[in-house]
Amino acid sequence: MAWTHYQRVLAILMVITGSLNTLSVKYADLQIVKGQDEEPRHFNHPFMQSSFMFLGEMSCMLLFKIAFCYYTRQMNGSVDSNSLTKGSRNFSPLVLLAPAMCDMFATSLMYVGLNMTYASSFQMLRGAVIVFTGILSVGFLDRKLGSREWFGISLIINGLSLVGMSDFIMQNDSSVSTNSIITGDLLIICAQVITAVQMVVEEKYVSGLDIPALQAVGWEGVFGFIGICLAMIPLNYIYALPPFANNSRGTLEATVDAFVQIGNSIHLLMAIIGMTVSIAFFNFAGVSVTKEMSATTRMVLDSVRTLVIWAFSLAFQWQTFHYLQLIGFAVLLIGMSCYNNIVVPQLFRKIQCRLGRRQPQQDEESIITTAADDVADKNE
């Protein structure tokens, strides 16, 4: 099935804004700016970065309200048919509270990890969410995983191991210890457990509500922003050692120090703006891609996003190239494709048919280039 113009725009928007978001966060981390004590330091404020992210998500609520008011005044029923506003509005916003809290914890943990490791590794290691989502779905959604899914999970684990090994081998920056990079990688993987919980909760309690994408992202932004702001109060008084607390106060977060650093650097300010704006568009595009096309399409686009981030990091010498990372990403991609039943399983069946070990099924040729979700839709 050919994509519509709107779907193509969503796909491009997701790749561009998703890449820009991760790169903006990492660019902010790399900035060395004078803080509250006039000492130049890296911008090490992951919890503040999380608050800016949720602020960006909150802006989606404003956009939804503007679009809703505009199409309501049209008096032609477009409010129920337009892609920005269509969907159910009879739901309790509190149903999004639990996913938002999971998002808050996971994002904060990932940003702490990103501060210690490479942007490309950050993006690749997020593929671990499939492993944990699959396992949790068995326990809480009564889902049964077949041999294809388990094989995909095993490939993903191997791919993650290779990516982690590449980080260990290619570490050549004296300002960042190997232990910090490995710790960052582990924190990112741990965050995927929380993200998996979020996905399971959303599938169990939210997916059937047909909430408009902008409104869903907006409410999660509201809850997440309130949650992270409350969390930062004690974090400003909890002392820790570098690299977890590399700021003027020596605490896990130093809010005033963060604003001072932002005020002292136009480059840092632009990175924060880029992060805030891009996350709003990325979340809207991501939810819309899943809704308009399929979750498998979103996975493929996320892989393209990973390639963009990796290419950018290499081009601007944020990291060095190592073949293990390339192999690890390839194994990750194959594993995710197997798990989501995209291309690889169909190619395997086609090879079996060519070798005479399996009878071809109807429309098998066309399935090779079609996402599994789309095949199911055609057969219904």
Automatic annotation (TrEMBL):
The keyword Transmembrane helix applies. One of its GO terms (cellular component) is Golgi membrane. One of its GO terms (molecular function) is pyrimidine nucleotide-sugar transmembrane transporter activity. It is a multi-pass membrane protein. The chain crosses the membrane at residues 52-71, 91-112, 124-141, 150-169, 181-201, 222-245, 265-287, 299-318, 324-348. It is found in: Membrane. The keyword Disulfide bond does not apply. InterPro entries: EmrE-like, Nuc_sug_transpt, UCP036436. Keywords: Membrane, Sugar transport, Transmembrane, Transmembrane helix, Transport. Belongs to the nucleotide-sugar transporter family. SLC35A subfamily. This is Solute carrier family 35 member F6. It comes from Neodiprion lecontei (Redheaded pine sawfly). The lineage of its organism: Eukaryota, Metazoa, Ecdysozoa, Arthropoda, Hexapoda.
